[in-house]
Protein: Homoserine O-succinyltransferase
Organism: Caldimonas brevitalea
Amino acid sequence: MATLGHVTPSSKFFDTPLPLRSGAQLRDYTLVYETYGELAADKRNAVLVCHALNASHHVAGTYEGQPKSEGWWDNLVGPGKPLDTDRFFVIGVNNPGSCFGSTGPTHVNPATGKPYGADFPVVTVEDWVQAQARLLDALGIEQLAAVLGGSLGGMQALSWTLQFPDRLRHCVAIATAPNLSAQNIAFNEVARRAIVTDPDFHGGHYAAHGVLPKRGLRVARMIGHITYLSDDVMEQKFGRELRAAELGYSTQEIEFQIESYLRYQGDKFSEYFDANTYLLITRALDYFDPAREHGGDLARALARATAKFLVVSFTTDWRFSPARSREIVKALLDNRRDVSYAEIEAPHGHDAFLLDDPRYHGVLRAYFDRIAKEVGR
């Protein structure tokens, strides 16, 4: 398969305030995005890709002069790939509150002339979808062939079907859930506590002190990474393998290879991710619950959706288990919606949605082939 090659991000400034679910607003903001492929003359072949917690607009391709800069879903999006950019016009958008270019806590607050820091307003999945819709307006795209997302991105795809049911024909929701379980909220809270109790956090205004709460971010990433992997994968990769030949009998030094791996992941994450962004995005995960406004009845919540659906889960994903995807499927079937469901037997845990799996990619390829035929591509 061919590759997209080098890609270049674009940005769009919006001077119209964005009202937020919290009652606050973003007075003005910039969205960073990338596009791949060509928009058809009738503009019916556009696919929006929504990113998860620590991803961005950089879905596919590479950046010139930056080795190992492949987009986070480069194995899925590109010429001849399951989401084929020879047939579709693919859009990746960085959400407000992020630290990858779109307006977020590291940017200057126009009201104070200083970085937002902890003053950046709380954002929700619904707010992100509203911002994405404004970008599509600016691009002249009235209706999407599909909205695609995994994990938190899948929640955004679901939200699209409820907020703008007439603006998409297909929803592809992968490794996601209709809301977070209490256990998932608990994991997020422990990660947030690790950040806010870091002495360098300074109430979220660490930039004014010239420091970064890297210790807290490292622990937060380690906690998160544990939940993204299955027990089988951890056992296969690391087991009880020691880092050295013998036990060191230390309570503080690294003894096991799994400890070394987690510390490496934490260290790497703390070098590029913003702590306030982590707090915002995990809170957006916690808040997503479309059934809440319908007495907890998911079928009633999804009654508004008119799109066709593909829902995909993975057997060893214990953070967003197949049972949660089946909740979505049942609610859609209760509304007599057109829904396809694939439960992929994969050993990788939640991270499976990012990895190469021939059965998983085969399902997506077949589904997007179906969409391509609908739009004459």
About this structure: The domain at 184-282 is CATH 1.10.1740.110 (Rna Polymerase Sigma Factor; Chain: A). The chain has a mean pLDDT of 96. The radius of gyration is 21 Å.
